[in-house]
Amino acid sequence: MNQLVARKIGTEILKGERPPGSGFRGEIEEADAWGVSRTVYREAMRSLIAKGLIESRPRRGTHVRDPHHWNLLDLDILSWILSDEPDPAFSGEIFELRAIIEPAAAAMAAKRRSDAHLARMEDALNQMERAGLGTDEGRLADRAFHAAIFDASGNNFFIALSAPVEAAVGMTTRFKQENQAEPRDSLPDHQAVFAAIAKRDADAASRAMAKLVTLAWDDMRLAVGGRD
User: Which of 184, 175, 206 minimizes the C-alpha distance to 193?
Assistant: First the structure.
């Protein structure tokens, strides 16, 4: 239950319904308003504090923090941003991040990958082809493909970013599949990245990944537009 309360409040903050600086009532009042125990409400608020969305100080109460403090790479926050009604501005910023990180990761992977990394990528591609991105199985394979590239980069900082990027890939792909009548087949884009990495061609891998991300963002914008 505390997770449901945290999600609701967190989504309200991210959508601007609770602007920075806005305060919360006392714990008893808020818990009663949500229809939960004080313990449940307290745990929800602790979660939001840990994610940087709110702060609580003695004699000053609890307030929404400035967006500069929000941990936007937190997996829960990403899921709230990319919920059933994703914010186009936040979605665009996620794809801007991907456009910076993933081509570089693909280039590094081309230089440093092992045969085991290639096998993981190929297995993921085969699974994507068999299951299709319209299924949970296919989308998990898509995430596994991107995760293998991050691992193959050999850069621990990139690898640390793998989980949130994978989550963004999975959530945006699901949204596109569910909100376009005829979703574009992105498998060839993934296969082009794989081919360049297999050939150890770093420049080609970077270009192929940049194209993949650009086309994915075009698809996302079409999906969002289709809901208006």
Answer: 206
Computed on alpha carbons and rounded to an integer, the radius of gyration of the chain in Å comes to 20
Domains and CATH numbers, the chain: 2-69 (1.10.10.10), 75-225 (1.20.120.530)
Please say whether the beta carbons of 142 and 126 come within 8 A: no
State how far Cα 31 lies from the chain centre: 30
- The structure's pTM equals 0.82
Q: How far apart are CA 159 and CA 148, in angstroms?
A: 9
CB-CB contact of 183 with 134 (8 Å): yes
- Tens digit of pLDDT for each residue in 92-138? 888 999 999 999 999 999 999 999 999 999 999 999 999 998 899 99
181: tokens are: 């009548």
Q: Rounded CA gap, 78 and 184, in Å?
A: 24
Q: What is the largest CA-CA distance in the chain?
A: 62
With DSSP H G I counted as helix, E B as strand and the rest as coil, what are the percentages for the chain, rounded to 5? 70, 5, 25
